[in-house]
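Q: Okay, next protein. This is CPNE7 protein from Falcunculus frontatus. I've checked the sequence twice, so it should be correct. Can you predict the 3D structure?
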Amino acid sequence: PRAPAGMGDVPEPCPQAPLAVLSKVELRVSCKHLLDRDTLNKSDPCVLLLMQSQGQWMEVDRSEVIKSNLNPVFAKIFTVDYYFEEVQKLRFEVYDSHGQAGVGTHDDDFLGGTECTVGQIVAQKRVTKPLFLKYGKFAGKSTITIISEEISGNNGYVELAFRAKKLDDKDLFSKSDPFLEIYRIDDDRSEQLVYRTEVVKNNLSPIWEPFKVSLNSLCSCEEKRKLRCVVWDYDSRGKHDFIGEFFTTFEEMQKAMGENKVQWDCMNPKYKIKKRNYKNSGVVVLLDLKIHRVYSFLDYIMGGCQIHFTVAIDFTASNGDPRNSCSLHYINPYQPNEYLKALVAVGEICQDYDSDKKFSALGFGARIPPKYEVSHDFAINFNPDNDECEGIQGVVESYQSCLPKIQLYGPTNVAPIISKVARVAADEERTKEASQYFILLILTDGVVTDMADTREAIVRASYLPMSIIIVGVGNADFTDMQILDGDDGVLRSPKGEPVLRDIVQFVPFREFKNVSGAATGVLPFPPCPSQPLPPLASSPVPFHPFPIPPHPLPSPF
């Protein structure tokens, strides 16, 4: 992960210092002439993408497993941040996967690897490199090809639902096992695989699962760009039988919006020449198409949205008894405690963007009056009908008044508060005005207990006008919290669904408390609202259509 400005001994940048040049890059990977590690079948390859961070190789993502194929074209699209001014080292490793066990780590499973930089791939757009085994030995004639594409400013995505009817039967004793591939045809007439559906077994009229793909991947955001769609009959040995194909454009696909449907004849060119009465090899129908636009923080602010700021404070027992000077909640009459320092540092900048200067202030992890039951989303002013405070000073006063009335308890659950703010954001988005952008500041002293629920809540919130800043207070080990930040790869829900936008920024406050607010990197805005706004942590990431689990599940390919 990149070290934010102001960390350690790095001097505070001057106001004129240029911002880091950042863009998103999509990488498509294919291999040729892979080594065959299997006795009875061909290798089942999977690609791991690693990035060097502080001298260590960290896995960023991995592709699907393609069954029995020595020349795989992977459907998985890797997305990486590209910083023009930095040398970003990448390593691609190809493994032969073994069923449910996933990618192995034994030497016998390793099919080869290669290293390069993001800059090299971006500069050349298409890089083909040999694969190497250990000690620099060539992996036979194996090569890997990486194709890069910088993502344009249009960050919408489309949801598609296809089915087919009366496809040709390619199997002797059963029906075909069809799957659909969509290719984008580029200006140089090369084809880029956009999506590959699942296989529907033994069915000549399959209904494939709906899927999502970014407009950038589908058609480079050009509605008239030609697309080639191919239907195959799956073969477990990798020798899939061609059923038919058709050509279309995104412009034509959009006729399927609403209750309308669009269909194409699935054609086999050889049959068309040989058979006099040949009509088609089946029909492919686009049942539904939904377009979703993805907006960045800048889009919301420049569109006139006001920021609504919510602060959530950790009142779990791990903070220590507030009456003890060692407690992070200790009220010292002579100087603010760690929570107040973090609150003021972040809040004073946020309030410049909040027109009414009213902040919602919530607490979690404490037993609260009158019944002293544990709550994970209570108003610290104890007014559930109006949890807002007048400015940062009002939040500070409510915090100081709240502490003596509650009992610090636990656990450290933050998903309820994320979901609570998300519901308000969703209600706001449903109104015609949609005039507010919601920022949730979570101050906590440790790793969250409900990590799975928190990941799920963040993925849901990424579809809304909302961002989350998590500040770690105290000296705990916050390593696991970096998962939520998404700097080492796209954050996913427990079911594998990726965030639509990168909306979380996590920082340990101990590394920034002696640095001015503008240089902390905690906040995505400059201290003065009249200055141009650099991108927030919620800058959009392209929606990736494939929910890849932590370990690749066997795919039929």
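A: Here is a summary of the prediction. The longest strand covers residues 138-150. The CA atoms of residues 492 and 498 lie 4 Å apart.
Q: Noted. On to the next one.
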